């Protein structure tokens, strides 16, 4: 999946790679997203387009401990799980890879599962939606067919990875709502005065020659061609990941993190938001005035915590009536106000979930996840 020279040289995934394949039940679009701590923003962009997640864990000694038992703050594996759950992904496949390097040890598989299972449950993953798959990608064991190596098949008789993908329930789609297409990327190719954008249709549909409005610039244009699954098509609907060429749009009017909308139903644009957040495992409290990195769908902005309004009871969801706290500590839930350094495309979570999920990061770590409770300005 790592196609660029930089990725191959460094030995890590840096960008989101897209591949298509067919299983028995689905046409699957695989978004291979980076897990390295330096590229978590790209992981966020990939997870924003997903319906379910495969979390790959390196079972080899040393790598396993680094990913599962972090030395500082929230470790990588737990951060990845928290991010995908916060995007509303209910189904997760935990693929324990490289078991060949450990002689397909059942003890190591069980140890990883024992350490992570309680955390996944605390994130809100239900037992029925959580699947554990031992495998070896290099030796093609338990990927697309049951394991043939007796060291694995002697203790594991569950389905292979492809079976687990096929068992994921069909996701619901907002096809009947107005068009919402958050822009994930703007490929460099440009022909005949047309720009190309890529992303997942979160709602509605788009057809060739459809008129669209680009937010936040407010410029209108025309969809000239649509590519889906590597082939041109006339219409794409909610749930499709597409490449759309646009005419009558200038390059400076289009940015990653923008949104294509139905001309009569543009999404909102704002820079001051009220958020309902869950603080993750942090060492430094969040105070009024704390500067953070703000992520929403494919958009990123610098932001400042302007106000801590109240704490929330995590069990009941009720707002505490007592005076607002001076600071927020790890594992607390709260309502806060943030001010961004620029406007972003946004909707309240109750209106559009895809444009209402947010992440706050600081010093290379995700410190809080949440939703847009109210648009202030």
Mean pLDDT: 88
Second rung of CATH, namely the architecture of the largest domain: 3-Layer(aba) Sandwich
The CATH C-level class name of the largest domain: Alpha Beta
Largest sheet: 7 strands, antiparallel
| Poorly predicted spans | 70-74
Q: In DSSP terms, counting alpha (H) and pi (I) runs of 4 or more, how many helices?
A: 7
CATH level-4 homologous superfamily of the largest domain: P-loop containing nucleotide triphosphate hydrolases
Using only C-alpha atoms, the radius of gyration works out to: 22 Å
Beta-strand share of residues: 35-45%
**Helix/strand order, N-terminal first:** HEEHEHHEHEHHEEEEEEEEEEEEEEEEE
Structural write-up:
- The structure is a single chain.
- The protein has 377 residues and is of the alpha+beta class.
- It has helices at 5-10, 40-47, 63-68, 76-86, 106-123, 150-153, 161-166; strands at 17-22, 27-32, 53-58, 92-97, 130-134, 180-182, 195-200, 205-207, 211-215, 219-228, 231-233, 235-237, 241-247, 259-262, 268-279, 286-287, 291-296, 299-312, 327-328, 333-346, 357-362, 365-375.
- Helix 4 (76-86) packs across helix 5 (106-123).
- The longest helix has 18 residues, at 106-123.
- The radius of gyration is 22 Å and the shape is globular.
- The model is unreliable at 70-74 (pLDDT under 50).
